[in-house]
């Protein structure tokens, strides 16, 4: 009986101890918030906080909001760029990027004229109808598009060379206190082509009432280069989130010039490889021409017999594959 009573007393004591422990923990956790003086203490703490602490707190909150705005803006621009890359450029866009004012219909008309000219040149040179037709197709589809691609690349190189100067003009104008729109107008008059015409189009679109955040990305659509993409991102972030535009554009100008210097260095280092590739690619044609001058009957078998024509076509295909492989090996994207 004494054993049972002692166990009962021990259990009751343990329960009482647990209950008091729970009450103590709850009291320590919830009493400050349930106290009548809680709101007063919070108010006194806020009043006693120094102005520096308040400004620091507000600055941290503003930086967080700005970072979120920048991330959302960059994500939106990245999505637009992915859609633009997936979408194949039209002939009209390629003509505009090459700086040509002709329409796609006029381009196809000139291509047809080129095809006819190539056909008759091959026919008058003594080639068969089959070979002349193939040459005409090359003159219709290959040569005009090759010329358009070369002209477009040339204009893009000119734009890349002049674009840092335009950014420097904008930076100097902003540092003197001019608005960004006036700086763009100055860049449209002080820079050389093709940057001048593109910036004039920017100024005209802004004068029509379009916001700057929508006008600048159109520059990247017309001139699809990484440099214009960087410029559009900097302007869009400054318009939406604020910041020192002159400092951001100054850094952009230095980055653009560093990229240009790196491209020139890579081009200088790869000049020997390009010369070797050009010699290797031109060697079969030079040997064939020299054979035609010395042993005409021997070389003409390749163009008169069906088996010879098949061999020539196969050799041209393999030569084309080799040229593409060598071009991929010596071209570097920066």
Describe this structure in words.
Keywords: Cell membrane, Coiled coil, Membrane, Transmembrane, Transmembrane helix. One of its GO terms (cellular component) is plasma membrane. It is found in: Cell membrane. Its main location: membrane. With 334 residues, the protein is mainly alpha-helical. Among the domains are: 111 residues, Up-down Bundle (Receptor-associated Protein), CATH 1.20.81; 65 residues. The protein is 87% helix and 0% strand. The protein has 14 helices and no strands. Helix 6 runs antiparallel to helix 11.
Task: Name some characteristics of this structure.
single chain, 334 residues, mainly alpha, Receptor-associated Protein, 14 helices, 87% helix, 0% strand, elongated
CATH architecture of the domain at 156-266: Up-down Bundle
Instruction: List unreliable stretches of 5+ residues.
Output: none
Mean model confidence by pLDDT? 79
Largest beta-sheet details = none
CATH class of the domain at 156-266: Mainly Alpha
N-to-C CA distance: 94 Å
Q: How much β-strand is present in the residues?
A: under 5%
The CATH fourth-level homologous superfamily of the domain at 156-266 = Type II secretion system (T2SS), domain F
Oligomer: single chain
CATH T-level fold name of the domain at 156-266: Receptor-associated Protein
The helix-and-strand class reads mainly alpha
The overall strand count is 0
Helix content: over 70%
